[in-house]
Amino acid sequence: METPDNATETSDEAPVPTGIAAQDWATASAEPQYRAAVVDLLGALAYGELAAFERLAEDAKLAPTLGDKAALARMASAEFHHFEQLTDRLTAIEETPTAAMEPFAKPLDDFHRQTAPSDWLEGLVKAYVGDSIASDFYREIAARLDTDTRSLVLSVLDDTGHGNFAVEKVRAAIEAEPRVGGRLALWARRLMGEALSQAQRVVADRDALSTMLVGGVADGFDLAEVGRMFSRITEAHTKRMAALGLAA
């Protein structure tokens, strides 16, 4: 997963971590509910990275040029490396990676089945918009994690280059055929709604994750902040649409 360099802005005045966010894994994981939430989070991320690898490999088959095919293959390789980092971490904390991923396989598979792109450009927009929404969501959660887990999560959310690649290709396609923009704008709006609904469903189905999100094991995070979080994700989506040359 990724968030392209031009998608979001980082504040120079980030709050000083407190509570769990100021602890390391050894300390924070003594709380059983927090540990369960982290296992869920790593499992969801790991399956998401595996799915991203599979989708990029499929998208490479539709690439119009050999250069595009090679670029997507490199990005797919980067996603698989992220997947390995997450499964290695689960193993290191004595959890079985497949068991951690299992609860998230069907919801994510359903999302991808419901949002299957019909062509190369829709595939690019899906990866750029859908994956970036997921990355924004996980970055929000990362701010409430222990220092060790936060470092890992942020590292696997690093941009693989797909964001800027998608922007370049989509803008070029719209410039060549302006009417393509309307179709892709509708597609991106559908993806936004589906991605947010899917994220909310996944969290709601996992007690430990939902408790973390509303502040049960992560101080300073309440239901009002959840609303503000989704507002920030929506704002970032609007900026990405502008980068693509599409109306939000």
Automatic annotation (TrEMBL):
InterPro entries named among the record's database cross-references: Ferritin-like (IPR012347), Ferritin-like_SF (IPR009078), Ferritin_actino (IPR059125)
Pfam family membership, one: MiaE_2
The Ferritin-like domain covers: 32-216
Indicate what this protein is called per its UniProt record.
Ferritin-like fold-containing protein
